[in-house]
Structure formats: structure tokens, C-alpha cells
Write a structure and sequence with these properties.
Layout (H helix, E strand, L loop, with lengths): L1 E7 L2 E6 L13 E6 L7 E6 L17 E2 L2 E2 H10 L4 E8 L17 E5 L4 H15 L6 E4 L9 H11 L6 E6 L4 E4 L5 E5 L5 E10 H13 L7 H7 L5 E4 L10 H22 L3
Parallel strand pairs: 4-7, 4-9, 7-8, 10-14
Antiparallel strand pairs: 1-2, 2-3, 5-6, 9-13, 10-13, 11-12
Helix pairs in contact: 2-4, 4-5
Length: 280
């Protein structure tokens, strides 16, 4: 007869026990490794990069500003490409983007292009369509990452993949709120102080099944529901994404002063890696 073992990382182990009344010596048990569908799933990345970043007050979109010898977008791509489990990535950019041809990625041909949309959600939908055309399966995982988050750590991405892969609702990197939070009224005065104990800042990447994410975004658009990130679309569809705590240096470049802060964080991360390489 066959007795199934534990499910571990999508792999099922079956033990064959001969039909006998006597105890079977351990060395006579036959163990078979059966590959299940979960173990064949792949991981993909999507970067919506069609925004213009008006709050940055820059002559060029913020994702193309220079940061330690690369553009902000190139830095973000470099971080995702450092994760071996990510098969490839799709970047959604405006159709007439004059800066895109100047981008240099060390990871080609793992980078594909999709047409950007009017809003972030439209860009993500276009990128998901490109992934499907490329051969991504409906149940594959997709990590959506902001083009303006160039400081995300590889370890954070790998932690996200590890923890969310075991969660049917998907998940996202996030950090607990530390500041005192105020709710304002229509006069921009304090209406009340909000309990921060259950509040988190949503970061990226945000990781969901390809088909489920596509369906959720389309449903939200059909309901005229404001989608501010992928998790909000999934929440609207009834999912409860897992919050995976990340590092606070995974900032989003939004205002002019953020570029200098990102420079500091990247330099600091580089120093940390050098210390580890030196055995410190």
C-alpha cells in the first residue's frame, strides 16, 4: 500500500510498504519523490514605470534620475534580478518614453517591455498580459515592485517569497507605523489621534498569483473602486494578504529630498556588504 508523507515546498513523498503482517525493515521501504503542481510554479516580476512623478519637481521622470551611477529604474531592476528565483521581469513604460532606449540592464534578456497605462493599475494589467504571452501560468506568482524603490534588499525579497508562497491570499512587504497618526477633518485640523498598533506602511514588492491579481484589478476597475496598490485590489476581491515585515530603508523616491536619502541608504548597504565580505 501507499502512505503519503509530508508536503514540503510543493513536493510530496510517498512511502511504499509491502503487504505483510511482519514489521518491515527500514531499509526495505521504497520512498518516491512526487513532483506536484506547486513545485513547478514560477516567480515573475512586474515594474510599473510609466509615471511622471510631479511631486519630484524634476525635468525628467524620477525613475530616470541618476543614483550611484545608474538610473533609479536600473537600480530597482538590479535588485530584483539579484534574486535567482525570479524568472524574468516586465517593465511597463509610456509608449513614447524618450528615456527608455537609454536604459542599460545587465540582466537582458530577462527584461521585457509592456505599454504603460493611464494609471498604475492599467500598467500592471498590461504587464500581466505580456507575462501570459511569454508563457507564465495562471497560478504563477508575480511580484509587483515600484520603479521608485531602488533600495529594496535582496533578503527582504527572498523573505517575501518564502513566506507568501505558503499563503493562499498573497502578501506584501510592509513596516509597522512608528509615528503618532492623526486623522484630519475638512478644515485640515486634527479630528482624532488614530491607534497605530494595527497600522502598517505598505511597501513593495507585493506578491500575488497572476490570474487572481489580474481578475481582482479588473473587478475593482469595473466597480469604480480606487486601486492604490495591488493589495488594495486583492482586498476588494475578498483576499487578506499577508504582511511581511521588511526594512525601513526600502523607501519610495517621491520628493526631491528622497534622492539624497536613497543615496545614503545604498551607500550604507554597500558598506554592510563589504564588512561581511571582509569577515567583520
Amino acid at each position: 500500500m501507499l502512505v503519503s508523507g509530508n508536503l514540503l515546498l510543493g513536493a510530496c513523498f510517498l512511502v511504499f510498504i509491502p503487504a505483510t503482517q511482519s514489521p518491515v525493515p527500514r531499509n526495505q521501504l521504497q520512498v518516491f519523490h512526487v513532483v506536484t503542481r506547486n513545485s513547478l510554479l514560477k516567480y515573475w516580476a512586474v515594474i510599473p514605470a510609466a509615471g511622471v512623478g510631479r511631486r519630484m519637481q524634476s525635468a525628467i521622470p524620477k525613475q530616470y534620475l541618476k543614483l550611484q551611477g545608474r538610473t533609479v529604474l536600473e537600480q530597482a531592476v538590479h535588485r530584483l534580478a539579484a534574486v535567482p528565483r525570479i524568472e524574468a521581469m516586465v517593465i511597463a513604460v509610456a509608449t513614447e518614453d524618450p528615456y527608455w532606449p537609454k536604459q542599460r540592464f545587465d540582466v537582458l534578456p530577462r527584461v521585457m517591455r509592456a505599454p504603460g497605462g493611464n494609471e498604475r493599475c492599467h500598467s500592471v494589467l498590461n504587464a500581466l498580459s505580456v507575462l501570459k504571452e511569454y508563457g507564465a501560468a495562471a497560478e504563477d506568482w508575480v511580484l509587483v515592485h515600484d520603479a521608485a524603490r531602488p533600495c529594496v534588499r535582496r533578503q527582504d525579497i527572498e523573505d517575501l517569497i518564502e513566506k507568501v508562497s505558503a499563503n493562499t491570499h498573497g502578501g506584501l512587504l510592509a513596516i509597522p507605523v512608528q509615528d503618532t497618526m492623526k486623522l484630519m477633518d475638512e478644515r485640515q485640523c486634527v479630528a482624532q489621534t488614530v491607534d497605530r498598533n494595527q497600522l502598517w506602511h505598505a511597501l513593495t514588492p507585493q506578491m500575488f498569483r497572476l490570474q487572481e491579481l489580474q481578475t481582482a484589478i479588473l473587478a475593482a476597475l469595473n466597480d469604480d473602486y480606487l486601486v492604490t496598490d495591488e493589495a488594495s485590489a486583492m482586498e476588494h476581491a475578498g483576499y487578506h494578504p499577508l504582511l511581511v515585515e521588511g526594512r525601513g530603508d526600502n523607501i519610495k523616491i517621491t520628493r526631491p529630498e528622497d534622492l539624497a536619502l536613497a543615496e545614503f541608504y545604498l551607500q550604507n548597504q554597500g558598506n554592510e556588504m563589504q564588512t561581511l565580505d571582509d569577515g567583520g
